[in-house]
Amino acid sequence: MDLTPLRTECVVSGTLFFILQISRLAGTSPVEFERGDDGWRVRVSMFYYVYGCVVQVILAVCIGIYSIDREEVVDGYEASHNTGFMRIILIIYFVVHVMSGAAIAFTGLDRMRHMIDCKARLQWINAEIDGFLRPSKSNERTMFLIVIATLVFGYYAVSFEYGVYFSDLITAHVTVSQFDVNQHKESNEGNSIPNHVISCGIDSLPVIVRQVRMNTAAPIARSLSLLAWSLLCVGTLAMAVDACHRSHIQLWMTETLIRQMRRHTHREAAEVSDKLKLFYRHIQLNPVCFAPLNLMTFNRNILIMVLSSIITYLTVVINL
Description:
This is Gustatory receptor. By secondary structure, the protein is mostly helical. The protein has helices spanning about 15-25, 45-70, 85-105, 110-130, 135-175, 185-200, 205-215, 220-265, 270-285, 300-320; strands at about 10, 30-35, 40-45. It has a three-stranded antiparallel β-sheet with strand order 1-3-2. The radius of gyration is 25 Å and the shape is elongated.
């Protein structure tokens, strides 16, 4: 058993710093940052750990309300013909999200401690090898653009789906004399506050959806919602496993480097050769079980995300 204490801080910059900032805001990464000369120093934070637990509890409550109220929003729009099966799917949908949220919240400190330790050790190896494993600036820019594109698309996909829900909810509980009028006239007839909250809070997508669905029974909005959620599931999964994929590549490069160092180590340096051999066997006996882009084994966190995505997809399909 490895008794080496975990490193308590590491230095990050670029895309990793941006991802950690977003993850901390979402309540999945309980870390704090301190500005340094060589980048941002990262440490675990008990304050953001409590913040993450609170965020997950709030999300669980919101998803529960959304799941319970979803099929009875307005005029049977969200109701399925197979009501019993739809209710079972919604329960599974809620349970999976609660399980994944609890795992994210209560394992946050342990995950971040090991992430910081792994990053610190890789930085030490990089410094010793003079940047052998250091990513190029072009790769860093490409990764940053991919992350930004995924976040923007995810925002619009979520805005569309939940925008439809809140728009229908407001329409169902607010009396409006006419529905065949434009949005501006409807706002002037006593519906201004809810409509402006929807329009400003989650962009103009709900307004477009209401205009399309106002006088037609065609499932245009539901079809677009299905497409948005399907692509969002794929984008979320790809964004979540990308860090695992990069870790797998870095460890593979480390293994290759150690193999080359052992090959060129002379017999006079027997002690160094033994340490390299021990390190090499340690890597072999503790293989990485992610990197799905290389069609390798998923770990349990990725399986939870895949299951959650499948349930989300089934929920949307049944609503059609």
